[in-house]
Amino acid sequence: MRSTLHGLGDLIAYLPYELGFRPTDSLVVVGLDDDRIRVVARLDLGDADDLAQGIHRIGSVFAQAGVREALCCVFVDTDPAPTVVPTRLLDLAGDLLRAHDVDAAHLLVTRSGSWWAHRCGCGHCPRRPAAVPDRDRVDAVVESVLDGIAPHASRAELRASLRECRTELAQVIGDAPVTDRPMPSAAVTAAMWEILHGTRPIHEMPVPVLASLSRAMANRSTRDEVFGWLAPGLPGVGVSGSDSPPGMPGAFDARAVRARLVQWLHCLPDRLRPPVLTLIAGSAWSSGSGALAAVAVEQALQIDPGYRLARLLGHAVELGARPRRCA
Ligand SMILES: [Zn+2]
User: What tens digit of pLDDT does each residue of 292-323 get?
Assistant: First the structure.
């Protein structure tokens, strides 16, 4: 996101674009750094004990990551609308975060296209339901739409979007003859450049290139090198080689890159998918899209339950936070 959000109503309108889907019956905790969104975590409104544990974990991870300011917003959708529970939950969230030295100055409620502040730290937020700003009037939303980014209606839809497959092409790539020689490093770099930053759709890339590159990702050091470009500095994952390869800019539009990675995924049969799903998860997680990261990890582990990098990432993603901001 490059645009500035003007006020918390804008932020609420923008959150689905940051999460990748519209949160429903959720508690969303936004970690802030100098008034910028640094991390977004989401919990289902369900069992009170689970929620308390979830908030506790979020507070712990935020504190470890040096996030000291947060904002909590309850999205209430299901009827009948609970009147007391959201505010009680928000108070609990504020207290649990405070126990980790994370200050939640704003506790907000969103329902039926309106929002209001249960607690306001700035003195300017509405205390009674006010309309969430029209998406067309929020610069950051318009920017996302122009970038071709639309939030999915639900987490289930996000899952389904990753499962899509160009079946015929995936079969051809899966059946492509295997050569004994590993793909040379320069060829991996060139092909990855095309995948990440090219202009032609991935499914129009030459099949031998896609087949070789997709197989090269089964090699741990090759995959880790690419992972390092996409998700630099993930602690606990033990990835080295985070230097950008020659000619690859250090800072790129993470969402545009992820859209290309998802296109690549759609060209692959299941057995070649775990490394690419893990790259998507790493990229998503390091730039704050925890929901996509969780879904990608989940699918990698469904295909290969022992896939180590996915398990490590899954553990980190479960905590609901990323360790650092990537531009
Ligand atoms: Zn306020």
Answer: 888 999 999 999 999 999 998 887 776 654 44
| Distance (Å) from CA 75 to ligand 1 centroid | 17
Q: Are strands 103-111 and 69-76 parallel, antiparallel or unpaired?
A: parallel
pLDDT (average), residues 72-93? 81
Mean predicted confidence (pLDDT) in 254-280:
92
Same structural domain for residues 118 and 21? yes
CA of 183 to the centre of ligand 1 (A): 55
Neighbouring residues of the ion ligand 1, judged by CB less than 5 Å: 120, 122, 125
Domain extent for 268 = 157-318
Q: Using pLDDT thresholds of 50, 70 and 90, give the confidence band for residue 84.
A: low
pLDDT at 243: 46
Confidence (pLDDT) at 299: 96
Indicate if 71 and 98 belong to the same structural domain. yes
Instruction: Kindly report the average pLDDT of the chain as a whole number.
Output: 83
The structural domain count of the chain equals: 2
Q: Is the pLDDT of residue 86 over 90?
A: no
Distance 123 CA to ligand 1 centre (A): 5
2 domain-assigned:
no
In a domain, 324, yes or no: no
Closest CA to 321 of 123, 144, 66: 66
Query: Ligand 1 centre from 140 Cα, in Å?
Result: 20
Q: Rg (Cα) of the chain, in Å, rounded?
A: 21
226 lies in the same domain as 285: yes
The last residue of one of the domains, among 151, 176, 192, is 151
Could you tell me which residues come within 8 angstroms of residue 25 by beta carbon, excluding any fewer than 6 positions away? 44, 45, 75, 76, 77, 78
pTM for the structure as a whole: 0.67
Q: How far apart are CA 111 and CA 308, in angstroms?
A: 40
